[in-house]
Amino acid sequence: MTQTDTTCPYCGVGCGVSAKVVNGQPQPVSGLEQHPANLGRLCVKGSALHETLGHDGRLLQPFIDAQPVSWDHALDTVSRRIQQVIQQHGPQAVAFYGSGQLLTEDYYVANKLMKGFIGSANMDTNSRLCMASAVVGYKRAFGSDTVPGCYQDLEQTDLLLLVGSNAAWAHPVLFQRIRRAKAQNPAMKVVVIDPRRTASCDIADLHLALRPGSDVWLFQGLLAYLSQHDGLDQDFIEQHCQQFETTLQQALAQAANPEQVAQQCDLDVAQLRTCYQWFRDSRRCVSLYSMGVNQSRCGSDKANAIINVHLASGKIGKPGSCPFSITGQPNAMGGREVGGLANQLAAHMDFNADDCDRVQRFWQSPGIARSPGLKAIDLFAAAERGDIKFLWIMSTNPVVSMPDADRIKRALANVDTVVVSDCMADTDTMQYADIGLPAASWGEKNGTVSNSERRISRQRGFLPPPGEARPDWWIISQVGQRLGYRQQFDYHHPADIFREHARLSAFENNGQRDFDLSALTELNQAQYDALTPLQWPVNERYPNGRQRLFDDGHFYTATGKAQFVPLQATAALSVSQPPGRLIMNSGRIRDHWHTMTRTGQAARLNQHISEPFALLHPQDAKQRQLSDGQLVEVSNQRGRLLLRARVSDEQRHGEVFVPMHWSDRYSARARVSSLIDNTHDPLSGQPQLKISLVQARAYHPDWQATVFSRDDISRPGQRPLLQSLDYWASGRNEQGFFCELASRGDSRDWLQALRQQMAQQSSQPLHWVSFDDPKRRHYRRAAYDASGLVCLVYCRSGGQNSSLLNRAWLSQQLATGQPDSQLRMALLNGHPPGPQQDQGAIICSCFQVGDKAIQAAINAGHNNPEALGQQLRCGTNCGSCLPELQHLCDATAPTEIA
Ligand SMILES: Nc1nc2c(c(=O)[nH]1)N[C@H]1C(S)=C(S)[C@@H](COP(=O)(O)OP(=O)(O)OC[C@H]3O[C@@H](n4cnc5c(=O)[nH]c(N)nc54)[C@H](O)[C@@H]3O)O[C@H]1N2
Ligand SMILES: Nc1nc2c(c(=O)[nH]1)N[C@H]1C(S)=C(S)[C@@H](COP(=O)(O)OP(=O)(O)OC[C@H]3O[C@@H](n4cnc5c(=O)[nH]c(N)nc54)[C@H](O)[C@@H]3O)O[C@H]1N2
Ligand code: SF4
Ligand SMILES: [Mo]
């Protein structure tokens, strides 16, 4: 048995994970008690990590033009093509597009190769879609990209503002820490500022369901309020800040009157005042902000509007007080440290002449890039125009995650050489790769990541990479060497790269740059392997890392003072929204990660929400004669989605929420970013992924069906079967796969096609049993081979729902051998013989407890999450479902929040 301490590959909380392997088999993971980010806890995604380690769907060998090739051949070809493009078109025709999911060492080498040796700064990253606006906010205010605070601040605060953050689902372990802190300190208040009533509102004392995009108004109003109500920290402003007067004047000119602000934000003025008053009266306050702030055409201004009120009230650099941009990806921070964005150089340096000279000297580079490169939207636009001849995409899936996502397909088709490094073979982006490179994945890789509170932790490998998969740093260094820079890319272990990265951070620093790892420049491999989690800077003064920055009132601007940023709020969209349209918001659900290449592998994570959906307000649904569970077409001039409607007053009237996760791999028409345009923040280049105008109307299929099968009927190669259908969404369950279907026409035609395809592909003869009720248009099929059940299909008429199917039970039957005749009958009925309770949709993924079981327990009097936990165990492991348990209890016996 081996036991390895490592770090979770999902969100920016950066939890420590202990991974055990027995006889080569990975065991269920557990949280690392001694890791300061999680103190032993994991959320549901973290707890299911071992379920994602199978080799199903992995890319196992390099390929060129769909033909498998050796690494030597692939790397030679990549290098030769880069050289050819540089010779014929110059370095600006080469581009890299990376990811906050690369390890720091991978990222450092990619950035070094591009900016230092290819000589163009066209290296951007998916962090452009994620925290580019937060970076601009910090740099404008502090002169550096510095997260001032730490996780303890969230526990030590009196008032926590969650602004555009659904931490309950997106940063669950941190959210549980906050929940516990609040339980221990009942005086602590939480305000959620989000157009939607999300799971995070479970612990909210106040929810401000503001009009999307109106955050700058709200915080300008707060600044004005503080000045009018004795809420300023004059000493702090005078000693440590600049540009206060102009900033305040602009806020007063626009937002002196809370009534006006409330109108702009579409909020109740009394609630708004309450929030303002709490901020003024709370000695300590943290504003935790995320994608509702960053992914906006005014994301940078939103960030500075938040920072302005913290500076004005001196609520920064103190325990329990700071403006805190929480990062999404496991290594979004590491990417910022190495300069992964096209407008950064490396180690928190920019493209001014001094920084370029310094980095060039350090890297001994022949010709460093001297001006910023193309940001993601511009980069793909240049690709579409044919200006990019060579594009290398690493660890990201832009065909799903970039705005105007169908245009990304056109752009990729227009690049001479597209290289994609990914662990998985079937991503939507891999379909466009001329050269595919198999990357090692979590559990096989070795390096460091930095979490949201600047904490550097080790990711350590505990499994051998399958097939020919290799770590990203190795792949990139090999190309660097083949381009002629043998010495500069002569790395043998990630520790070599980390030391160099630390040395660059220290190089001619003299206290001028916040990012400083000078105490780590001499780590040998054993020390690197044993590195325990540390918050940067790590230098002579702070050899064990630094918990908070700016506690000394010193900022990294030329004057050493923080800068207020004067702002002008602009009207949010819905003021002039055309009638009949809806504002579409997009974001995350609890159990899926991004484009599902990882969480799609774990049966447990596919049960909470198993289909792509559109969340609609009851009035909007009624207007469109739509009911919960029906299919809805959401469209605009860019495209059309087909989604399952969920109707709820959690959603504001006139708005619709669609998750970002479903790709073409898992659904027919659910890539939400294909409807989103390229509107972006002018300073950060970050796209406005949260606001798009769409229409919605009911879609009426002639038939719908649910399939349970041993093999995945949606896997590539099987697709012709699904391509003719209007709607399908597939996923994994415990013993196989499920697929929900809907279309026009006669379902029997499709059943026939399914039968033919399965006959062709099966190695044994299949025996089909059927049940037809033509009047109700119910057609049911079960296919058996010698070992038992292979496939179950339940077709129904278009208007009927499938609530009578007992999904949990049905999926288990795929593994139970040959059923007797009674069971065969029950299988066609869709539920077990005799009384057996249907779980319903899974709410607690850890213990697989469904909503029907929970509802029954609530009805029996167990009407709070603790009692439910005692009764059913739900919510007692990772706690990610506690907000939903509370919600179900509240729905049975409503309680008021302000
Ligand atoms: N389960 C899960 N967790 C994840 C991820 C995942 O894929 N799945 N991804 C990780 C990543 S990379 C990231 S970046 C984070 C993101 O974490 P979050 O930012 O918390 O997640 P989102 O759901 O994208 O958006 C947050 C909220 O912003 C709200 N919002 C929309 N428009 C506005 C607005 O104008 N103003 C305000 N104030 N709010 C608005 C949305 O309604 C939404 O609830 O999550 C990380 N954690
Ligand atoms: N509509 C809408 N769009 C969004 C967002 C939104 O809120 N709404 N959010 C945006 C945000 S914040 C983000 S961060 C992005 C995320 O979007 P993406 O980065 O496109 O999503 P992922 O699915 O995480 O893609 C990571 C890819 O890298 C692969 N991979 C995993 N590990 C490794 C590795 O070690 N090496 C290599 N080479 N590959 C690996 C995975 O298989 C996967 O294909 O989406 C953005 N897009
Ligand atoms: S909160 Fe969950 S997803 Fe995020 S790092 Fe921790 S275990 Fe992983
Ligand atoms: Mo993100």
Rounded average pLDDT: 95
- Please tell me the CATH architecture of the largest domain by its name: 3-Layer(aba) Sandwich
Small-molecule binders here are: ligand MGD, iron/sulfur cluster, molybdenum atom
Rg on CA atoms, Å: 27 Å
Q: Work out the helicity level.
A: 25-40%
SSE class:
alpha/beta
**Model regions low in confidence, pLDDT < 50 over at least 5 residues:** 894-898
Determine the strand fraction and express it as a percent band: 15-25%
- How many helices? The count is 30
- Named CATH topology of the largest domain: Rossmann fold
Question: Strand order of the main beta sheet, please?
Answer: 6-5-17-16-15-7-8
Which word captures the global form? globular
Straight-line N-to-C gap: 53 Å
- Main sheet, how many strands, which sense, barrel? 7 strands, mixed
Overall structural domain count: 6
Number of strands: 35
Question: CATH class of the largest domain, anyone?
Answer: Alpha Beta
InterPro entries: Asp_de-COase-like_dom_sf, BFD-like_2Fe2S-bd_dom, BFD-like_2Fe2S-bd_dom_sf, CT_Nitrate-R-NapA-like, MoPterin_dinucl-bd_dom, Mopterin_OxRdtase, Mopterin_OxRdtase_4Fe-4S_dom, MopterinOxRdtase_cofactor_BS
Cofactor: [4Fe-4S] cluster; Mo-bis(molybdopterin guanine dinucleotide)
Family: Belongs to the prokaryotic molybdopterin-containing oxidoreductase family. NasA/NapA/NarB subfamily.
Keywords: 4Fe-4S, Iron, Iron-sulfur, Metal-binding, Molybdenum, Nitrate assimilation, Oxidoreductase
